[in-house]
Amino acid sequence: MEQPPELTVDLPRAWDRPVVTVPVLACLSLVGGQLPSFSTQANLWTLGTGGTLIWLGLGNRVPRRPAPHRLGPGALWWVLPAAVFGVLEAATFVLSVGNEFPTFSRLADPLLTDELVRSAAWFGWLAAFWGLVRR
User: Fold this and answer.
1) In this structure, what are the phi and psi dihedrals at residue 7, rounded to the nearest 5 degrees?
2) What is the pLDDT of residues 43-59, one digit of tens each?
3) DSSP tag of 74
4) By the 8 A CB rule, do 25 and 19 touch?
5) What is the CA radius of gyration of the chain?
């Protein structure tokens, strides 16, 4: 007589649940928003938070769907604007053109002086990063 196959349910870990993830990301973003921009503390907080999210997101993970063998033709329309933006940012940073042609980060600096706005930006960054890592 043949045994029926075992039914297993893959329960998400605690940090995969929105009821846990959102408050944790909110607390992390509140701390990150209090740090001065481009300071050593802010850079260390960014690297530590990002590294921890990568470790938690990719550890003991079963792929949810197989990776594509090659990118589709529509991927160029996503890569092209990102590449143009990256080249433009890098060129203006390296050439130090100042206020004549400022980088995106220089344009965002007046907005990010407020700690609440900086915390909201941190939360958006963390949520997007967590979504990409868990994908």
Assistant:
1) -95, 120
2) 899 999 988 888 887 77
3) G
4) no
5) 20
